[in-house]
Amino acid sequence: MRPPLPGTARRLRRFAFTAWLSACTLAIAGATTEPLWLRYPAVSPDGTTIAFSYAGRLWRVAATGGEASPLTDAGDYATHPVWSPDGTQLAVALKRRGNTDVHLLPAAGGESRRLTHHAAADLPAAFSPDGATIYFASPRLGTPHSVLAGTAAHTDQLYAVPATGGRNRLVLPTPALNVSVDATGGRFLYESRPIYENEWRKGAVSDGTHDVWLFDRATATHRRLTSFRGEDREPVWDPASIGYYYLSERNRATNLWHAGLEPGATPTEVTHHTGGTVRFPSVARDGSLVYGHEGEVWRLAAGATEPTRVAITLPAGVITSQPAPVDAGKYLSEITASADGRRVALVARGEVFVLATDTGRLTRITRTAGHEQHVRFSPDGTTLYYASERDGDMDLFAADLGQSDEIKPVERKLVDTTGDLLYPRPSPDGRSLAYLADRSTLRVRDLATGATVDAMPAGGLYSYVDEDVTFTWSPDSRFLAASGGSIVANQDIVLLDATGRSAPRDVTRSGFPDSDPQFSSDGQSVFWVSERAGLRQADAHGGQGDVFRAYLTREAFDATRHAAPAAPPVAGWQPQLAGIERRTQRITPASSLLVFHAPASGDEVLFTIETDMAGRITGRTVAREGGKLREVFTRPAPADGYAVDAGSRHVYLLGDGRVDRIELATGETKAFALDLSLEVDSRAELTAWFERFWRLTKFKFYEPTLHGRDWDALRRHYARFLPHVDAWEDFAEMMSELAGELNASHMGCYYLKEDPAADKTASLGLYFDDTYTGAGARVTAILPGGPADLAANPCPPGTLLLAINDQPITAETDLEALLNGLVDQPVRLRLQTAVGAPETEATIVAIAQNAAQDLAYDRWIDERRAMVDRLSGGRLGYVHISAMDLPNYQQVYSDVVGDLGRKEALIVDIRYNKGGNIHDELVALFTGRDIASFTTRAGENIARIPTARWTKPTALLQNAAAYSDGSIFPHLYQRLQLGPLVGDRVPGTGTAVWWMYVMNGSLKWGVPQLGAKDNLSGWFENDEIVPDVLVTNDPAALAAGRDPQLEATVAALLQKLPQP
Fold first, then answer.
1. I need a labelling partner for 13 at 20 to 30 A (CA). Which of 282, 452, 467, 782 fits?
2. 39-313: what fold?
3. CB of 174 within 8 A of CB of 157?
4. Which stretch is the leader sequence (predicted)?
5. Domain 852-1054, what architecture?
6. Given 745, 763, 964, 967, which residue is catalytic?
7. pLDDT in tens, 318-366
């Protein structure tokens, strides 16, 4: 679940790309001779050799151990090795064009050959017994009949490609991971994936866990082989193909088990590790088994009863600690200006720099492996305050800069506690420093004596994510204005006594979000952003905002009405908050999407920066009299940070490797180019993110015992792998394994960096016949609304696609290779609509794959609605909610209050719901009671009361993939007894998460920090929602286009209606 973020109050900045090195974690220097974190081991068919992944490369070693030799170069990320039946080749996932593609690699080493060219992530799983075909998993468009089409990002389907390269063909249109093919090639073991969740989560017991299935290709039937409700995964055939090995948590720790194929077969535990997790089993023809355990490779020899660790060494110099050059200008995160505008401080890749605006000289202030943030100048501009991540937490530092443009900073630590200290804000008189302690307390420190007071004690605010708490000093240094409360519920502006002697006082007292307070230059009024007057989103989460102003004394307000002449405030004046609502004014004449504001000077009262739906930003001033707007600048894209100097004489924009200074009076702009070339220690970076993610999880996780796990011990355990991790992909996987130890939703680490050179495979909006083996590609269906869905109908079903942009299509042409780079481009097709028909040409504009998936989802919805209409005789309506977000709410509201209002009852389908935060709105929508109507004098009922809520029966259709808020809503629906629930049991994933995007969005870590809690039953997390009618969807039915769950929901809801 996500919190309702105020749309105008802030745009949360991403962490800069940096790190700090923990003394408790090993650093590496030189060679690693006994490596850890060996992943994806695979034994050769003859049992003599093991291939594995380490440091982003593939290696091979004798099954008995020894020194391994590399199979791939250090520049390519390689993983998932799969041996060919004759042991001469390996199918591998190689990442060269922004995503993993299947490559074929000589087992002895040499040049690899690329076999797949789709922009989706392709992962090899198995060879056919004759070695001619490679099976792989990939999340692609699938078939027009698949019930999963377009509904979820986790629907990796099974495809096949010839080992010589060529046409990719769909084998299974339903999720099938870690496929293993038997000796005949006709039976497939595979692992189901019913839910999008951290792949490495441990200990879950629900319908969302993985199971082992058997697919018989001859009969097109699927059979579930495992019944344990925890994790059963990664099946591999035994040598005789009469049973299979797989991983299971049946006895708590993940171990290797063996079972037969007969129904009800009793599995036998093969390994007996009492701690850690077994991963990646593989089996040789002689029956010897190889697997991974706790970052090492283990082997169970044929006929042996106890496995042994395979001792592996590597050549020297595999992982080094040499600094690497990095352009930190790509990782800008924040900016602040001194009062006189002579200096600008900025943060780039977590390091602090100061720019002298007179000379353009840029001085680096910090040189740490730690992350610095929240920079602020002292009133005279000679000291810079900031928070820095060192020694296991965030502490406050100051750098003395002096007066000269040739800065020689002297750093000193100001405040050091065991918790995080953030947002240092010096008082205007320079005597005090306010800051946020432990993300819950606003504290003020006397800089001379070190004495502290709590201006806002714990409980007055809750910081959900960094950058969501804002506060500022009054000009006389006696007060602070701050955002109190939380963005999760509601924020108000509160006035704080800097001495801590008086309790916080609410200035805004509003049910609408209020944020970003600023004092006027005389301290007699407070500006802030509020959404109370702007357009609100339909889901009530965010909208347009305005800047409001509240006068803290009657005298100051009277002066604006010319009832009394304006006079400077009397020393020691006190705020008069009684009746302040009558002294509150809207300053901006029109609501907008505000990203920045600051008081102005002279004839202008305010400066604002707003954005529009196209991403443009515009800076404007507001006249003191009449509120007239004056445009100062317009830019095509938002900046990475904004700042003003005293009196808002200039605004400073940070972005694109430079600082732009704009004079508000004239709009004149001066650009300062930034040379931010740094040498970065990647070892320290990896360690730093490990420490930060671990620490924030420890102190922010929603449940205080962290589900009973020893988080400190887990830190020590996983920290030993850090010296052996040399690729961000491996780091993300290791961190996901750590996160998985807590058995919680909304956790995991994901590497998301986009490669500018990545393939972008276009879609023609056509489905092809994967059984057709002749020249060309035979069209089976057209995607409604897609590029080929034209009035002229150039390629109806049955048409042969013979060429794309004059490139002939043979029986083995890889279509994706022809479509890369053609997104939004006109594509010329050569077609033959029927056997013997003349060839024709048509030009269509190809679309992106995600656009095709969206259209496939629309088709899926249309098919569900038609199915419900047919099965119910037109009595029932149908809506699907794919995510708990604004577009879904708008569509559901439109359907329910509009066209579906004439139906007798409604099916609400939340299968594959990705979460969000609209459970309140949906509960309100579906709990209406028909109590009155608007009726004409002739007795005609024009509208019922309530007019905007559903008052008729409903049924809720759910499956295990209803996630986050998609699981909170069915819990509430069942608790309120709104109607029958049908489908799978839904795993309890009811937490609110802080997804931290760091390295400019390249790395993502989740902390579930707030748990939904039922007044009667307790935490929603890990508490399954059991339906009234339990129905699972058989994969064969799904592949055929049937939907047994929906059929059962129709039947259940019709039983609630009077018989026609």
1. 452
2. Neuraminidase (2.120.10)
3. yes
4. 1-29
5. Alpha-Beta Complex (3.90)
6. 964
7. 887 778 888 999 889 999 999 999 999 999 999 999 999 999 999 999 9
